[in-house]
Design brief:
mainly alpha; two-stranded antiparallel ribbon; 7 helices; about 5% strand
């Protein structure tokens, strides 16, 4: 009977193996995105509830922080045809391209017009479906992960170096601390 039972073994925290930087970044990315999103983190789309315009994906890239446009430019570089195919109406895709080329204040105003629901947390159709379609493209998911790891990971490493200068005797060697710094980099941009 016992052979078919499921057992969970939780190792003693004092004897956990060390993990490398890449695994720490992946853990931090997963933890932060779980707080930022619900459901499929790559398809998460939020309206202008916070004044930043549309927020998209696991790191909630948005117009206000200036992070959404570069992300979409990376998508275009990866596969422009696949990006265009996410927009079932070519006129809407042209509008999206025009919005991406505008100033952040205009982008946020546009996002405000397509935001709906309680406190403008949702995005109206067809824009919600378009962005969710982008989040389903495997190549774009890879771009999101790479972008989050590179951009925010570099900021975390800068923060660790800064903290080590302030207090060289304090080691930042706990995953919880590293994840907190990663979340801070996403939330504050630095």
């Amino acid at each position: 009977q016992e052979a078919s039972a499921l057992h969970v073994v939780i190792p003693d925290p004092a004897h956990l193996p060390e993990i490398g930087l890449e695994q720490a970044l992946e853990s931090a990315f997963s933890i932060t995105s779980s707080f930022e999103t619900t459901g499929d983190r790559f398809q998460q789309v939020s309206g202008n509830f916070d004044g930043a315009g549309i927020s998209f994906g696991p790191a909630q890239w948005n117009f206000g922080s200036g992070t959404l446009v570069p992300l979409f430019r990376h998508f275009e570089d990866a596969d422009q045809a696949a990006l265009a195919a996410c927009f079932t109406d070519p006129i809407d895709y042209q509008e999206w391209e025009r919005i991406l080329s505008r100033q952040a204040t205009e982008q946020i105003r546009w996002a405000d017009r397509i935001s709906t629901g309680r406190m403008k947390q949702e995005v109206v159709e067809p824009w919600r479906s378009y962005l969710r379609a982008v989040g389903r493209v495997r190549a774009f998911r890879a771009v999101m992960v790479e972008t989050a790891m590179r951009a925010y990971g570099a900021r975390v490493l800068d923060a660790v170096k800064y903290l080590q200068k302030l207090a060289p005797e304090v080691e930042i060697n706990h995953l919880r601390c590293f994840c907190s710094l990663y979340d801070l980099a996403i939330q504050q941009g630095s």
